[in-house]
Amino acid sequence: MNVDCIVVGSHLRFDGVWQRPQQLLTRLAARVPVLFVEEPFLASDDRDDLRMQGSVTVLRPLRAKHAAVADAETVASTRAWIGGRRALVWLYTPMMLALADAAPGAPIVYDCMDELAAFDFAPPELRARESDLLARACAIFCGGRSLFESRKYLGARVHLFASGVEFDHFARARTIAPHPLLTDLPHPICGYIGVVDERIDIALLETLAARACSVVLIGPIVKIDPAILPQRTNVHYTGQVDYADLPAMLAGFDVAIMPFARNAATAYISPTKTPEYLAAGVPVVSTRIADVVASYGDVVAIAIDAESFANAVMAAKDTPPERVAAGVERARDVSWDAIVERMWATLEGE
Question: Is the confidence at residue 52, as pLDDT, over 70?
């Protein structure tokens, strides 16, 4: 595929939780310039803020009142950035399909990392927009097995590229001191890293918090009322933590947890945090998420309900060392660098 730049449309903020889009796009930016277009921000006036964040150019539309995602002004700013270059349009949300108007005829990649229509507050028109995107995309990359299975009927354009890990970054957790926020907490410390939203099983957290342990949730609380979360002295909410500090957080965990609810929002998830936890050499306990069971069920403890989850967490100190070591090696095999190489090779074959 002969392209000179990549235009990305995302529902996530580039400076938000560092996950799949940031991992992929910073690597793709080593090949060609990348423009990351965000959804609009409310501001005092209308303008498009264009700035470099590392190797990626970020376009942040600022609007004085509610504006459509990828409105005419955003499309015009994107077109100006492209100039005379040959662009590839790379989308994380169907709501950004209008960005294709900035580069008529450009190939479109849909990197599908979530079943967005199943999330709370999803726009009612999202499913129809996704149908349009699926029809127009030259390649559809699926971030997990369940997403792939639900879209493979579309044929050879659909490819499974499950999320990976920056292995050396997270493996540091096995050799460094715990983060100061954790050093005075009673053990065992069971920790979660990620967004705290409608995917988290609140009742399960309550059950776990009733045990003699410290529960630490590291990440922003979004789309839910923080008051519904467990309010106990042994439950700690840190808010968002810099990506650079996550290995030190994991260094303080006795067990890493994935306390996901079983609901529409989690039916298709393939948590990026799974290989990150494993690379850190920490025992991992998860609820029965289909993609976790399929890809990591032999190295992650899987619980079927709140009681078995809490029991598995408390028993994590007895996790066989060979199981932890097997998890480390499993994570080593799924690097983001290798995934980007395979993605690019796939596009060159389109």
Answer: yes
